């Protein structure tokens, strides 16, 4: 799907005229759309042996991280990670849903349904779906909150956001905004704006996870809840070894055959292994201010749903 002439600004699905989301405190910066920017700079980047430079919302500037961090199993400069992750998801965006079905044998749909059931979302509520990508959760939330509620589908990657926007517009979701935003800052959104904040299979790709959790806490209303659906650590050792074999053998092969991109899916497998385990993530949520935190293992701990409240 082409990104030509797409601006990283807030849009609504009810009209072609651009309209400001009620949750924004400031407009998002204008810039060249990712797909267009890659095309314009592709020759220079290839010559320099570097990755394309994507127009991304700025991240947090904290002392949480050192000069280096991990990108899968590789150690890279912290400032480079967001660009490298952008390259991965720009590459996989068009095949993302198909690959999810193949890689999980369709079970990801059950994981998401379980998370939605835990969300406690009700009619009239305000929901922020971070790293919402192709819009699986946002589509359901749009129906659940109804005409008096509102959903914001947010992603740092414009290619993914474009796919989600097209899907939800085709589905007639008229109560959804689409916002390009960085999870580390959630800069466009005002304090105490949302009843529910969710992030599904996106937190492990965030460079500064502590900053992201603090931003999620900030934009939640008192009494609101955070729901994190993410790959985690299998709880049974024999199962863990079989899972490793599948992840590092089958996933890159499927990525090569279906999406013509084995390296992106190798990174995705590595990023899962580098993500904090269930207990560590729960402690990080508590450090960000969340209370009554818990988690629920699914499929033997391959995936976990973490939940916390802003009281």
UniProtKB/TrEMBL annotation:
It comes from the Bacteria. GO terms for molecular function: 2-methoxy-6-polyprenyl-1,4-benzoquinol methyltransferase activity; demethylmenaquinone methyltransferase activity. It catalyses: a 2-demethylmenaquinol + S-adenosyl-L-methionine = a menaquinol + S-adenosyl-L-homocysteine + H(+); a 2-methoxy-6-(all-trans-polyprenyl)benzene-1,4-diol + S-adenosyl-L-methionine = a 5-methoxy-2-methyl-3-(all-trans-polyprenyl)benzene-1,4-diol + S-adenosyl-L-homocysteine + H(+). CDD domains: AdoMet_MTases. Keywords: Menaquinone biosynthesis, Methyltransferase, S-adenosyl-L-methionine, Transferase, Ubiquinone biosynthesis. Methyltransferase required for the conversion of demethylmenaquinol (DMKH2) to menaquinol (MKH2) and the conversion of 2-polyprenyl-6-methoxy-1,4-benzoquinol (DDMQH2) to 2-polyprenyl-3-methyl-6-methoxy-1,4-benzoquinol (DMQH2). NCBIfam families: MenG_MenH_UbiE, PRK00216.1-1, PRK00216.1-5. Belongs to the class I-like SAM-binding methyltransferase superfamily. MenG/UbiE family. This is Ubiquinone/menaquinone biosynthesis C-methyltransferase UbiE.
């Amino acid at each position: 799907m082409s990104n030509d002439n797409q601006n990283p600004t807030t849009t609504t699905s009810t009209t072609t005229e651009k309209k400001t989301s009620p949750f924004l405190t400031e407009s998002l910066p204008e810039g060249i759309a990712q797909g267009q920017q890659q095309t314009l700079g592709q020759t220079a980047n290839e010559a320099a042996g570097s990755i394309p430079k994507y127009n991304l919302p700025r991240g947090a500037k904290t002392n949480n991280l050192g000069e280096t961090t991990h990108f899968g199993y590789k150690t890279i400069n912290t400032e480079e990670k967001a660009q490298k992750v952008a390259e991965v998801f720009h590459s996989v965006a068009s095949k993302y849903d198909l690959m999810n079905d193949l890689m999980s044998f369709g079970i990801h749909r059950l994981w998401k349904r379980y998370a939605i059931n835990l969300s406690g979302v009700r009619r009239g509520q305000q929901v922020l779906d971070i790293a919402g990508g192709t819009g699986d959760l946002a589509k359901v939330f749009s129906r659940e909150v109804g005409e008096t509620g509102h959903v914001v589908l947010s992603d740092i990657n414009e290619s993914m956001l474009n796919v989600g926007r097209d899907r939800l517009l085709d589905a007639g979701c008229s109560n959804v905004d689409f916002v390009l935003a960085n999870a580390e800052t959630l800069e466009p959104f005002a304090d105490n704006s949302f009843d529910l904040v969710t992030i599904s299979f996106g937190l492990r790709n965030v460079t500064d996870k502590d900053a992201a959790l603090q931003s999620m806490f900030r934009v939640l209303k008192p009494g609101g809840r955070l729901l994190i659906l993410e790959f985690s650590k299998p709880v049974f050792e024999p199962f863990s070894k079989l899972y490793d074999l599948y992840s590092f053998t089958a996933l890159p092969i499927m990525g090569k055959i279906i999406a013509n991109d084995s390296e992106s899916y190798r990174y995705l497998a590595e990023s899962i292994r580098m993500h904090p385990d269930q207990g560590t993530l729960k402690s990080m949520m508590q450090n960000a201010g969340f209370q009554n935190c818990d988690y629920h293992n699914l499929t033997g701990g391959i995936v976990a749903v973490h939940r916390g409240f802003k009281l």
